[in-house]
Amino acid sequence: MRKHIVAGNWKMNNGLIQTETLISELKQQTKTSDAEVMIAPTFTNLWHAFESTRQDDIEVIAQNMHFAEHGAYTGEISAGMLKSIGIKTVILGHSERRAYFNETDESLAKKVNTALAHNMRVIFCFGEELSDRKAGNEETVVENQIKNALFHLEASAFKHIVLAYEPVWAIGTGETASPEQAQDMHAFIRKTLKSKYGETVANDMTILYGGSVKPGNAKEIFSKPDVDGGLIGGAALNAEDFYAIVNAF
Ligand code: PGA
Known about the structure:
Strand content: 5-15%
Largest sheet: 8 strands, parallel
Bound molecules: 2-phosphoglycolic acid
Number of helices: 11
Order of helices and strands: EHEHEHEHHEHHEHHEHEH
Helix content: 40-55%
Distance between the termini: 17 Å
C-alpha cells in the first residue's frame, strides 16, 4: 500500500548524548499528518534509539547493512544483527554509499535480496548526478539503477520496498529539485515499474524524494501527486525542522 513516509537519515552525526537529546526533542513534537516517521541513527546508537522510542510513533531504521549472513567482513553489520535488536527497515544504495564505498548495482541487488530474506523493509535510494542531468540522461540513469538492482525480484517483493529518488546534485547542497522535476521523475519511476510489474505494483509503490528538503519547501514538493514523502538529511538533525517536514502533508 502506498503511504506517506518521512525518514530522517542522520548519516555519521550524533554520539550517544546527542542521540538521547535529539530523540527527547523529537518526542516533544506533535504529529499532525498521517506520515510514518522514521529515524536512522548511526549503528552504535541504534539499540539505544530503538529502546527509547518503543512507546512512540517513530521507527528506528538502519543506514546500511552487508549482504553476507555473517563471517569475515571486518567492520560490517549483517541483517541478522539488525533484526536481533528489533530493526525492521534498512536504507540501501544511498548515493554516499555508492560514491565513497564503491557500492554498485550488483552489490546492492545482493543486499536487497538479503534484507528481503530477513523480512526487512528496504528504502532503496538512487538518483542521477549533475553531469547526467546536464546531458539529459537522468531518466536512463535512474531506470538502469532501478532495473539492475531490483528487476530480478518477484512482484510480491515490492510490498517490502520503498523507493527514494535522490538526485545527487541536490543532496546536502541546498539546491533542491523543483517540485516539477521531482514529480516528473517520480512519474517516470512509476511508469518504469508499470512496464515490468503492472499497474498495481506501480500505483502502490511509495516513492520518496530526497535532497535538501527543508520546512520551507516540503509542502510544495509533497503536494505533487507522485511524491509520497521524503528522505531527509540535514533538516532531520533538528527536531522542530524535522516535524515541520513530517507535518507538511
Ligand atoms: P539532505 O540529505 O536533506 O541533507 O540533502 C538527503 C539525504 O542524503 O538523504
